[in-house]
Amino acid sequence: MERRWTTRTRLGIDVQVAYDGGELKGCRTRDIGLGGVYVTSADPLPVGQFVELTFDVPVGGEDEQPRIRAKVVRSANEGMGLMFRDFDATAFRSLQRVMKIKDSAFAP
């Protein structure tokens, strides 16, 4: 049963996933929406883990690094579903910048 309150858009970009005690390497988004993101990872974190995502987003020739906090709500062998949390205006603007690259050459 689908429980998302927003639609997701396919988007494959590199993302850093930091958590209390470490950072996952080699992560990439698979899809993203205003409510969350699916991140592929060789070492997915357990459900309930809080994380901070950092996206490398090219804007006007320079890389921005929007940061958004999230929580793991689904974990599988190939990755994890993350729900964004503590969503304020700054996080919303960061997410908009990430989603804008969908139409650029950086999207799959």
Structural features:
108 residues, mainly beta, Thrombin, subunit H, 8-stranded antiparallel sheet, two-stranded antiparallel ribbon, 1 helix, 11% helix
Provide a descriptive summary of the structure in words.
- The protein is mainly β.
- It has a single domain, classed as predicted glycosyltransferase like domains (Thrombin, subunit H).
- Helix content is 11%, strand content 44%.
- It has one helix and ten strands.
- The strands form two sheets. It has an eight-stranded antiparallel beta sheet, with helices on one face. It has a two-stranded antiparallel ribbon with strand order 7-8.
- The longest helix is centred in the C-terminal third of the chain and has 12 residues.
- It is globular.
- The chain starts with 8 loop residues before the first strand and ends in an 8-residue tail after the last helix.
- The model has no long low-confidence stretch (mean pLDDT 82).
